[in-house]
Specification:
The protein is mainly beta. The protein has one domain: Immunoglobulin-like. The protein has helices at 2-16, 118-121, and strands at 21-28, 36-42, 54-59, 65-72, 75-84, 93-94, 98-99, 103-105, 123-125, 130-136. A hairpin with a 3-residue loop joins strand 6 and strand 7. It is globular and about 45 Å long.
C-alpha cells in the first residue's frame, strides 16, 4: 500500500512541477489610438482565426499594445489580433472577405490570396520558455 501511495504522490507531483510557459506579445504600427485591440491565442489549426483558446482586449497607447499569456502548457500555438478602430467588437470586412481594419498574426504570417495560414503563424513553447513575439500591423 505504501508503494502505491508513493508512486501516486510522485506521479502527481511530477505533473504539478511541469514547467509552465509564457508568451509575451508586443503589437505595433497602429494607425491610431482609436478603439481597442483584440488578441487571441490559438492552440490548433482547427480554431485558428476563429475561436481562441484565450482572448483578450486592450486599449492602445502610443500606437502600441502589449499582452502576456502565462501558465501555458508545452505545445504549439499561434496568435491573431486586430485593431477594432470603430470599437464595434468585430473586424469589419468588405463582402465578408477583405478586412477593413488592420490585423496581424504571430511570425507576421503573410496573407496571400486569403487569410494567414496556421503553418506560417504557429510556434512552439516548452520547458518553461518565455517566447517574445513582435506583431506589426
Amino acid at each position: 500500500m505504501q508503494t502505491v501511495l508513493l508512486y501516486l504522490s510522485l506521479l502527481f507531483s511530477g505533473a504539478m512541477i511541469q514547467a509552465q510557459n509564457t508568451v509575451e506579445v508586443s503589437i505595433t504600427n497602429f494607425g491610431s489610438n482609436d478603439g481597442n485591440v483584440y488578441i487571441s491565442l490559438h492552440d490548433s489549426e482547427a480554431n485558428f482565426l476563429e475561436k481562441g483558446m484565450v482572448s483578450k482586449k486592450s486599449e492602445i497607447n502610443k500606437q502600441k499594445a502589449n499582452f502576456t499569456f502565462s501558465e501555458l502548457p508545452d505545445g504549439t500555438y499561434a496568435v491573431s489580433c486586430f485593431h477594432d478602430e470603430d470599437n464595434n467588437g468585430k473586424m469589419n470586412m468588405i463582402m465578408g472577405m477583405i478586412p477593413l481594419e488592420d490585423y496581424g498574426t504571430s511570425n507576421n504570417a503573410p496573407a496571400r490570396f486569403g487569410p494567414p495560414k496556421w503553418n506560417d503563424a504557429k510556434f512552439e513553447v516548452s520547458n518553461g520558455e518565455i517566447v517574445k513575439l513582435d506583431i506589426k500591423l
